[in-house]
Amino acid sequence: MTTRNNTDDALALESQLCFALYSTQLAMNKLYRSLLRELELTYPQYLAMMVLWQRDRQTVSEIGEQLTLDSATLTPLLKRLEAAGLVTRQRSRQDERQVEVALTDQGRALRDRAESIPESVGCASQCTPEEAAGLRDALHGLRRRLDTP
């Protein structure tokens, strides 16, 4: 039986960019799960709330575009946020096909409780703000290149 040097093996797990991203995503999700437990939000719900905290009253399609989620994935998530009293969903007066999502007072108040999360993530990652920004920008660039046909 022949063993290959892992650094020379194109199929070695530790050589794969996809596995580095995947395993890092798992670790990041675990961290966020613990931080978001107090807010009673899942990570995808937190992302949707961040979109609305940035600009209230958006259509489902606008939110989905920013989160790169389709409405079939986003609608159940938004329904759970509505059931929790954090958002309202209603048909647009201008276009009945569109559903507008808006924060409730409770949803706006949750923002104050969530403000410490980015700092907690920064502490856990042990990255300087510059390192974190560099990683973020590199990942955004990679995603753009992968999305370009």
TrEMBL record:
Keyword Cytoplasm among UniProt keywords: yes
Subcellular locations according to the entry: Cytoplasm
GO CC aspect terms: cytoplasm
Domain HTH marR-type: 14-144
A Pfam family of this chain: Staph_reg_Sar_Rot
Any one GO MF annotation of this record: DNA binding
PANTHER family the UniProt entry points to: ORGANIC HYDROPEROXIDE RESISTANCE TRANSCRIPTIONAL REGULATOR, TRANSCRIPTIONAL REGULATOR, MARR FAMILY
Name recorded for this polypeptide: MarR family transcriptional regulator
UniProt source species: Salinicola socius
Organism placement in taxonomy: Bacteria, Pseudomonadati, Pseudomonadota, Gammaproteobacteria, Oceanospirillales
